[in-house]
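Appendix C reproduces, verbatim, an entry submitted by the partner laboratory led by Prof. M.T., so that reviewers can inspect both the input and the predicted structure.
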Amino acid sequence: MKLNRPMKRHSALVAVAAVSALALSACGDSGAETPEGGIDRLNIVVPADPGGGWDQTGRAIQTDLEENDLVGSASVENVGGAGGTNGLTRLATEQDPNTLMVMGYVMVGAVETNAAETRIEDTTPIARLTDEPLVVVVPAESPYQTIEDLVADIEENGQAVSVTGGSAGGADHILAGMILEAEGVAPDKLNYIPYSGGGESLAALLGNQVSAGISGVGEYAEQVKAGTVRALAVSGEEPAGQIPEVETLTDQGIDVVLTNWRGVVAPGSIDEEQAAALTDLITELHETESWQETLTENNWADAFLTGEEFATFLEEDIETVKTTLTDIGLL
């Protein structure tokens, strides 16, 4: 992918192969100590309000790093809004090399739909961590019993039917558009109401302020089990472990599969040794029993990637999301 950006910024994304190698032998003379020496303080930026998937991920990283003594301490800072691009702007000014920002598929789309000046290409990729299907839900009192009921009502009544989810241009928004596209419904009939945190979208659903909602399975599963919302479909290739009774979109005749990955990046200003130390730290975290338990408890699939593989994945995902957003009328 050709980037119309200064070479220094471009190299933060594509020169991660060297970082991957350095991660195996990084020393603390760069200003970011190795996990063996113990990073004194780690900053974790969550580019969303409390209560959503990024917040859950950031706080899980914080807890497991501290419990395994991989850092002296870790703090979480929430910077919500604009699909995570406010967090990107915040990261761009960060001077502390011991800083990680949670991000993922949602941010890739939001950068495009918000025409964000600061882009993911301006960060230093560290690791992809997890992968999770989405779930389409409706309030318990909703007349919709199937995903086809919801799609049919959108086709008939358009903007009178509201669908809530995360930030505009993110995974939830894209999934809504892809479902309509697959069913031959014009994209301009979608009335999508974005929220920056999962807690807000859930409140709108529980208050019957919206017709339907889309979010990660981990965010809505407990409400589905409690019967306060009804799940119509999940977006993975297979049913989700937390709510295995809910059929996939494909099983219901809608040819759409989409999963939401999450990972961490660092400031674009750090050098290769500092990036290597952070990569090594997250690799250590990934290998702990507590992190594997965290994955199981949250029903997050292990999608671990670092180094050149993660950098390449990011480049390809950015291009794919641009194409998808254009196809479904969001760009």
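Residues 1-12, 14-35 have pLDDT under 50 and may be disordered. Additional entries are available on request from the coordinating office.
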